[in-house]
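A.,

Following up on our hallway conversation. Structure tokens first:
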């Protein structure tokens, strides 16, 4: 799809509703360059509906952690699963991280970026984890989480969903990394502001 066809598609969708519904096939085709172009073309107040695979994730979240789901989508006039167009670049990535859960107000955040890794301790931990991976050895959940964080920002809910883990096991892995001085855990949305891309 050309840039102009994409823009026309978005304009047509905005004429139908207060937000843009992007068909899944188009979501899968949008390039990072087109994502930047679209984000710049439309106002920051423009809303888009999350892709179906991300809605499926949030329906899972509603079942396994309703408190977090309510923190994100409950008690607001905005229809659930609609977000600002500025999130488009994160949503077109094919890494399973989706819409970042990083600004929770009523519960602790579990959003981690490579900048949350404590330099020397995490370097050694990541190196040993990579060696295990290269040698086809089984990774522990903390090792897997550390590698995921090292490669790109991720929240604990997407991590658990991506790897088919319970939230308790995923959170326990995060706590273990914190206790071993590999990871810093910033729990408030205010403290995370500078780390959100």
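Then the amino acids I'd put at each of the 197 positions:
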């Amino acid at each position: 799809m050309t840039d102009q066809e994409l823009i026309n598609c978005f304009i047509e969708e905005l004429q139908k509703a207060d937000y843009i519904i992007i068909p899944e096939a188009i979501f899968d085709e949008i390039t990072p360059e087109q994502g930047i172009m679209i984000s710049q073309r439309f106002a920051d107040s423009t809303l888009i509906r999350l892709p179906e695979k991300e809605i499926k994730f949030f329906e899972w979240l509603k079942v396994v952690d309703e408190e977090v789901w309510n923190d994100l989508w409950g008690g607001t006039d905005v229809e659930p699963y609609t977000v600002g167009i500025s999130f488009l670049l994160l949503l077109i990535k094919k890494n399973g991280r989706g819409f970042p859960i990083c600004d929770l107000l009523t519960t602790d955040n579990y959003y981690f970026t490579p900048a949350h890794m404590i330099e020397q301790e995490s370097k050694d931990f990541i190196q040993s984890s990579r060696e295990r991976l290269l040698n086809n050895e089984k990774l522990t959940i903390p090792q897997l989480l550390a590698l995921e964080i090292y490669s790109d920002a991720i929240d604990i809910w997407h991590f658990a969903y991506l790897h088919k883990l319970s939230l308790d096991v995923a959170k326990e892995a995060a706590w273990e990394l914190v206790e071993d001085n590999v990871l810093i855990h910033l729990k408030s949305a205010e403290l995370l502001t500078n780390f959100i891309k």
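The radius of gyration is 18 Å. Curious whether your intuition agrees with the design.

B.
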